[in-house]
């Protein structure tokens, strides 16, 4: 791969387990040694440098806090390892600054065992930031938190990154985390970057089927070109106005439609029986069988009161231009 991460950027490495994202992160940190290629930090090549000389710090999935040290002592640890005296004005001032940054000013005297998971995560973050690295590497640091706390910490991490002005490189397999925090996202697949771009670009214009499946939800239909549009494998016709681009040639192609781009409409192009109905608070998810071999999911507003029970007949139509051709 050939990858450039910009200064003061929140950059996300996103992909399934085993795709290579953590290996890349550990290579930047110096915990893995690449067999080929070069890694540069600004104007300095770092892949041949020992980890302790690199201007990077890492926050691991397991926070690795010292249980017998207070929060203040944990944050000061890296500074003391550089030879700075404990309780010196320099160390005290820096620890106070980090406690304020992560919102733990009143928790400095506590031990890690007296903190919640989210607070421990903030301590690990403060400890890593205390040495003022040029780059902070984060290896799935939110994965152990519950959903509500994880979402709160996503907002906090983004705020801290903006306020500190430090480049964050964040590894995750959670596309919601990536989309909510990343300035840019590199989607990994089998050791390669499948697509690199801003969240809106990846969601709205996926480069291939892997990205389309991994970022959000997508319905896939096999279609063949016919005059004025396409026909699905089960015989439904979609006219050109519903497609993001014309489909030509004799070979079947795959199109993708996001569930939120399917709306209920009498006489819609995609009709069939509701085979699953899921109420998820803000939305109602409906799966409609449109033929013997194909079905689609639609997301409708929770206030929808039309046919939705399993066994109901329902017609759907894609929003204009939202049925997009998906490359392999």
UniProtKB/TrEMBL annotation:
State whether keyword ATP-binding applies: yes
Q: What is any Pfam family matched here?
A: TOBE_2
Q: Which PROSITE patterns match?
A: ABC_TRANSPORTER_1, ABC_TRANSPORTER_2
Q: Please state what the protein is called.
A: ABC transporter ATP-binding protein
GO MF assignments: ATP binding
Keywords tagged on the record: ATP-binding, Nucleotide-binding, Transport
Please report the stretch or stretches of sequence annotated as the ABC transporter domain.
Answer: 1-215
Q: Which InterPro entries match?
A: AAA+_ATPase, ABC_SmlMolc_Importer, ABC_transporter-like_ATP-bd, ABC_transporter-like_CS, Mo/tungstate-bd_C_term_dom, P-loop_NTPase, Transp-assoc_OB_typ2
Asked if the record carries the keyword ATP-binding, the reply is: yes
């Amino acid at each position: 791969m050939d990858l450039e991460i910009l200064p003061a950027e929140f950059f996300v490495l996103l992909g399934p387990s085993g795709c290579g994202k953590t290996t890349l992160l550990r290579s930047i940190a110096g915990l893995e040694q690449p067999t080929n290629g070069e890694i540069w930090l600004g104007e300095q090549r770092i892949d041949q440098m020992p980890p302790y000389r690199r201007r990077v710090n890492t926050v691991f999935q397991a926070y690795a806090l010292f249980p017998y040290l207070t929060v203040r002592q944990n944050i000061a640890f890296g500074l003391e390892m550089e030879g700075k005296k404990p309780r010196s004005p320099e160390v005290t001032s820096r620890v106070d600054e980090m406690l304020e940054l992560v919102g733990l000013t009143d928790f400095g005297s506590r031990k890690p065992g007296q903190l919640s998971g989210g607070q421990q995560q903030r301590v690990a973050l403060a400890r890593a930031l205390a040495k003022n690295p040029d780059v902070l590497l984060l290896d799935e640091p939110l994965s152990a938190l519950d959903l509500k706390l994880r979402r709160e910490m996503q907002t906090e991490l983004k705020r801290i990154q903006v306020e500190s002005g430090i480049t964050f490189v964040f590894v995750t397999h959670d596309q919601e985390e990536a989309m909510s925090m990343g300035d840019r996202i590199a989607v990994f697949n089998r050791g390669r970057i499948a697509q690199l771009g801003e969240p809106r670009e990846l969601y709205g214009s996926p480069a291939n089927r892997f990205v389309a499946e991994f970022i959000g939800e997508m319905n896939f239909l096999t279609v063949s070109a016919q005059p004025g549009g396409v026909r699905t494998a089960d015989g439904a016709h979609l006219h050109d106005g519903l497609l993001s681009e014309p489909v030509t040639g004799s070979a079947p192609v795959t199109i993708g439609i996001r569930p939120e781009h399917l709306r209920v409409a009498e006489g819609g192009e995609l009709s069939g029986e509701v085979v699953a109905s899921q109420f998820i608070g803000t939305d109602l998810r409906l799966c409609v069988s449109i033929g013997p071999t194909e079905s689609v999911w639609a997301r409708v507003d929770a206030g929808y009161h039309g046919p939705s029970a399993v066994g109901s007949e329902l017609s759907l139509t894609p929003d204009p231009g939202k049925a997009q051709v998906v490359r392999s």
